[in-house]
Amino acid sequence: MFDHYYKDKKVLVLGHTGFKGAWLTEWLLQLGAQVSGVSSYVPSEPALFDVLGLNKRMQDYRCDIRDEQALKKIMMSIQPEIVFHLAAQPIVKSSYADPKLTFDTNLSGTVNVLEAVRSCSSVCTAIMITSDKCYDNVEWEYGYREDDRLGGKDPYSASKACAEIAIKSYYESFFRDSSVKIASVRAGNVIGGGDWAAHRIVPDCMTAWSNNTSVDIRSPHATRPWQHVLEPLSGYLWLARLLQSEQTTLINGESFNFGPNASMNYSVGVLIEALASVWGQGARWVSDTENTHVAEAGLLKLCCDKALHYLNWQPTLSFSKTVDFTALWYHQYYQGKSMLDFTRCQIEEFEKIAARQGIKWTQSVTQTSMV
Fold first, then answer.
1. Is 355 exposed, middle or buried, given 0-12, 13-18 or 19+ CB atoms closer than 10 A?
2. Domain-located, residue 245
């Protein structure tokens, strides 16, 4: 996997206690990396970070990325070679409640990470994770491309657009001619086991159904490009590898979308019905559109042609397999199973499915050529 690139590499994951960060950390550990993580807190109870016991198998630091000097001090002590920046205020609804915190974390925090990378000579690669919501969403039926207009009507989306502008500015001003290779990545509507964040569809369903109660759904007709969490993470890991190959001149300083095929765009209602069919008895939900207090996009799609062309990246799982992976993880958890073993098995199964499909990150870089 990934050309054995991560074995014994020193990798820093910012936001490692979050849902995506915990999955990325576990995958990196399986790939043989020496992983350190920086987060300000564990964001939920329960949390995948705790369920997997990650604090016992990595260097675990507590630091708010809004504290530039503390962040620099930690990075200098770790001396990482590769940095994945996922730390953020990630919830749209929460951004209405505290917009300043959202901008301070997602914009100023990203600038602090860039400054820390600049000051740490060990770093050779930085992958900056933002969001598909960084685009100025006019709800057209086409997928947004990386050079489409940035924007955001809500504070969360706007903060991610601002972060993208800051990342591009730092590349042009400081990293273009340096030894540090950098890229930004955009993905969203990621689902999978171990997410317990507030105001998210899958965690709301799984928490309610595990208690044999019904769940209220605000926007059942909204359409999203659903993908399993391992899909974009495979893109991030592959991009970081290729940034240190002969292909770096074509992808350094660029932005990349990572999303599912167009066939994976389903409404919230369809997703919930699919999850309910896997969960089984007790899975009930009702539409609660009267209690929608914040604006939510009705349609959002990404065009991932750039990732296919320059990285030879493509998604792995079908919609049904994505739903199976997600619902079965929670089913195992609420039955009291060993979730470290089950999570590792899901990563291995994902790798095997990708390998059977001949997806490029399962092969050597020397076997991968540009399209």
1. middle
2. yes
The region, left, alpha or beta by phi > 0 then psi within -120 to 50, assigned to residue 267 is: beta
164 CB neighbour count, 10 Å cutoff: 21
Q: Is residue 295 part of a domain?
A: yes
Rounded Cα distance, 130 and 123, in Å: 20
pTM equals: 0.95
Residue 370 lies in a domain: no
DSSP-based three-state secondary structure for 101: helix
Q: Quick check: is 151 in a domain? A: yes
The alpha carbon dihedral of 142, 148, 149, 154 has a sign of positive
CA distance 278 to 329: 11
Sheet of strand 181-186, all strands in order from the earlier edge strand to the far edge: 59-62, 34-39, 10-14, 82-85, 125-129, 181-186, 255-257
3-state SS assignment for residue 40: coil
Give the helix/strand (H/E) hosting 75.
helix 68-78
76 three-state secondary structure = helix
Looking at residue 332, which CATH number applies to its domain?
A: 3.40.50.720
Contact 6, 237 (CB under 8 A): yes
Q: How many domains does the chain have?
A: 1
For residue 298, what are the domain limits?
A: 2-365
pLDDT digits (tens, 9 = 90+) for 224-280: 889 999 999 999 999 999 999 999 999 999 999 999 987 778 899 999 999 999 999
Please state, in angstroms and rounded to a whole number, the distance separating the CA atoms of residues 261 and 305.
10
**Residue 251 near residue 244 (C-beta atoms within 8 A):** no
